[in-house]
What does this fold into?
Amino acid sequence: EPEVTQTPSHQVTQMGQEVILRCVPISNHLYFYWYRQILGQKVEFLVSFYNNEISEKSEIFDDQFSVERPDGSNFTLKIRSTKLEDSAMYFCASRRVQETQYFGPGTRLLVL
Amino acid sequence: QQQVKQSPQSLIVQKGGISIINCAYENTAFDYFPWYQQFPGKGPALLIAIRPDVSEKKEGRFTISFNKSAKQFSLHIMDSQPGDSATYFCAASRDNQGGKLIFGQGTELSVKP
It folds into this structure.
């Protein structure tokens, strides 16, 4: 069964450093998403991406964040200058057209 | 208006019992209501979903009940098993408007043998 994959599984970085989180969505999917989950809290929407552009972003997704689909398979989330409060689990998700979003296993980001 | 409120925060059920988790929403434009199951260290996985034109949907031991007028929906897990112990999230979206999911706070379910 096809699945969403994410790398790395864990990332530790120093405050102020740039990080890039990578995702490979399911191959015939058209919509791509990033969500984050701070430890013990709910999953929060960050950004959606369709047709090679951002279709919607949340208040969390400020100028420090960017997304890119550099080729036909990868979908990346970049945080330019990490803050302590960026520490969270980041999930990539994708869907074909409507309904079911399939989530990846997540990247646990720890900012020190 | 964008919030989805979920209760209870945690739930302990005996094996074989019924687990019931409730959610409420405000935005009547939501048209897709999934439930996700999450095990520790894993991503959320879709369990079952419903659209507002249906009042109930059943898949195996899992049933969603949907009350459009009350803007509430609930997940019922029949014959709960220890393997069902996980965190459950309800969510809502405007499926034809990009589909971003608004999640509830989550319910940590523990099924005791």
